[in-house]
TrEMBL record:
Domain Leucine-binding protein: from-to ranges: 40-393
Keyword Cell division included in the entry's annotation: no
Name of protein: Amino acid/amide ABC transporter substrate-binding protein, HAAT family
PANTHER family in the record: LEUCINE-SPECIFIC-BINDING PROTEIN, PERIPLASMIC BINDING PROTEIN OF ABC TRANSPORTER FOR NATURAL AMINO ACIDS
Organism expressing this protein natively: Micromonospora chaiyaphumensis
Length: 409
């Protein structure tokens, strides 16, 4: 946060009441108070405004706005107007969003929740020669791009990080039941799991069970698939799964309802956002007791309880504004704003999309709420992965970091 001036740092200290802000923001100079802002710029924000992914879109929007709020509404010294566009859930709707934003003269694009939309707009972004800073997980197959950068992660990475952990902690004879939605996202995750686990002679003995990709699954949506796995002998020693949002809530509930009492392992999406509040049925509830006793462990690149200066600044500002803890979606969008800020600052006056894209390759290390990271050759983060466990934090269930897993990317 060194770009912020001393006056702004003092304002934030007063507003947020966070002692860590002094260390994060106090390196500015008085001369910055007199600096004139550059020419106004527009940034296109592609997010879903309805449907099951709207909550993720809202968090991506809020994360980007948090960075702007902490930096006087500027990126790289230029006043910013954020231009939202409806992502939808298909390549066609994503393409329409890109086309409209290009016509409106935005300097860069960011957002994009859906992996299918990200793949669908690839050619449009490359042809427009406009940088897109994707702020959600993206598929392995998005390769050889010039204008697409990502501040979240590639979908095989959480599986790989957990695969290495399970190989080290589970007995070789352990049976792992694997569940996920139909589609490429789950296949990417499971490919990562296999890569991390199948070393030193280890083999995953179970084929994944793919379930229908219901946006809002009913109470019996997963019962048949769960019974299929649990009826086999010996019963699973562990469950690995890939679900998010409403799917995650129903899968965990139905897994417990069918009598499973072992640990659950998953990419962090399983317990991000509002999932834990929907699973938490109170101090005397059966589901809370089962979660506490048997354990839900997730791998993710971020947790709101990480103890570093950048996260204290970000998480404090986010909680003050939105009255909830930030998720990895919000964090990755905050970092999307941060990398744009660095790149635009390198370009200087009158930046063009092509100049910003070139500068993105020169920004170096990012001081992020997740910990320091930098872009690798495939334009994705080289970053740490954390093992989180669902635990009580006061009276509420929360994702608590218990260990570092690996550095991937």
């Amino acid at each position: 946060m060194s770009q912020m001036n001393r006056r702004r740092a003092l304002q934030l200290l007063a507003a947020l009441g966070t002692t860590g802000l002094a260390a994060a923001c106090g390196s500015g100079t008085d001369t910055a108070d007199e600096a004139k802002p550059g020419s106004p710029i527009k940034i296109g924000l592609i997010v879903p405004g309805s449907g099951p992914n709207k909550v993720i879109g809202d968090e991506i929007t809020n994360g980007f706005q948090t960075f702007l709020t902490l930096n006087e509404g500027q990126l790289g010294g230029h006043p910013v107007t954020v231009v939202p566009a409806e992502e939808g859930d298909t390549a066609k709707t994503g393409q329409a969003a890109v086309d409209r934003l290009v016509k409106e003269g935005v300097l860069a694009l960011t957002g994009v929740v859906s992996s299918a939309v990200m793949l669908g707009i690839r050619d449009a972004v490359e042809q427009a020669r406009m940088p897109l800073i994707g702020s959600n997980a993206s598929p392995i197959s998005l390769q050889s791009v010039v204008y697409i950068w990502r501040t979240s992660y590639v979908l095989n990475e959480p599986g790989e990080a957990l695969g290495e952990y399970l190989r080290q902690t589970l007995d070789e004879s352990s049976r792992i039941a694997i569940f996920g939605t139909q589609g490429q996202s789950s296949r990417d995750v499971f490919d990562g799991l296999r890569k991390g686990y199948e070393q030193g002679g280890r083999r995953l003995t179970e084929d994944p069970i793919f379930t229908t990709d219901f946006p809002n699954p009913g109470k019996g949506a997963y019962t048949g698939s769960i019974r299929k796995a649990l009826d086999r002998r010996p019963r699973p020693d562990a469950v690995f799964c890939h679900y998010t949002g409403a799917q995650a809530v129903q899968f965990v509930k139905q897994l417990y309802a069918e009598g499973y009492r072992g640990p659950i392992y998953a990419p962090g999406f399983l317990t991000e956002g509002t999932v834990l509040s929907q699973l938490d049925d109170g101090e005397k509830g059966e589901e809370r007791a089962l979660i506490e006793k048997n354990g839900i462990h997730t791998a993710l690149n971020y947790s709101a309880d990480l103890n570093n200066t950048a996260n204290r600044v970000f998480a404090s500002a986010y909680r003050k504004t939105y009255n909830v803890s930030p998720t990895t979606y919000a964090m990755a969008s905050y970092d999307a704003a941060q990398v744009l800020d660095k790149a635009i600052r390198l370009v200087g006056e009158n930046p063009t999309p092509q100049q910003v894209n070139l500068a993105l390759g020169k920004i170096g290390q990012i001081d992020s709420p997740r910990g320091a990271w930098q872009f690798n050759q495939s334009r994705t983060p080289q970053q740490k992965w954390y093992l989180r466990q669902v635990q009580l934090d006061g009276r509420m269930l929360a994702n608590v970091v218990i260990n570092e897993l690996a550095t991937l990317g």
